[in-house]
Design brief:
This protein is α+β, with helices and mostly antiparallel strands and 153 residues long. 34% of the residues lie in helices and 13% in strands. The chain has one domain. A hairpin with a 4-residue loop joins strand 1 and strand 2. Helix 5 packs across helix 6.
Length: 153
């Protein structure tokens, strides 16, 4: 994948952010877990979009630093929803909130964002894209949009 070498990280970042009332959602490339990906122009490395957000808004990170989402939305890049932590804290937070693979829960903010963003048959905000962004199934997105399931918080 090519990118514009003349754009700064910040310019590339803002071109792919959709600010909702709650989360700021990454509309660019996502990995299989729903985390945004962006290429850093300075060195050509692909990094997670929420790490780029941290660097833009709060400064550089060490290689061992982990940036975690307090909103539990992998595609979120809103600085106030991010916290710098270590792997032990991140794992404890994941289990405490039931976010491991077998116990996926969504926050009220994530459910609200899905309902706000959903547009049928849209490549960037349809059920499939939102499912990837939030780490849930297409059916779960459909159920949320159609208010068939309550948030299990």
């Amino acid at each position: 994948m090519s990118f514009n070498h003349f754009q700064t990280l910040e310019e590339r970042f803002w071109a792919k952010v959709n600010k909702t009332p709650d989360c700021w959602l990454w509309t660019g490339a996502l990995n299989d877990a729903g985390y945004g990906r962006i290429t850093r122009p300075s060195d050509g490395r692909v990094i997670r979009a929420h790490r780029a957000s941290w660097e833009i808004h709060r400064g550089p990170l060490d290689a061992m630093d982990i940036v975690c989402h307090v909103c539990d939305t992998p595609a979120c890049v809103r600085p106030s929803h991010l916290v710098k932590a270590d792997k032990a804290w991140n794992n404890a937070d994941m289990y405490r909130k039931g976010r491991d693979r077998h116990h996926r829960k969504l926050t009220t903010e994530a459910v609200s964002a899905i309902r706000h963003l959903y547009q049928p048959r849209s490549r960037s905000t349809g059920a499939r894209a939102l499912a990837r962004a939030f780490g849930i199934s297409n059916q779960h997105v459909s159920d949320i949009v159609n208010r068939k399931k309550r948030n299990r918080e």
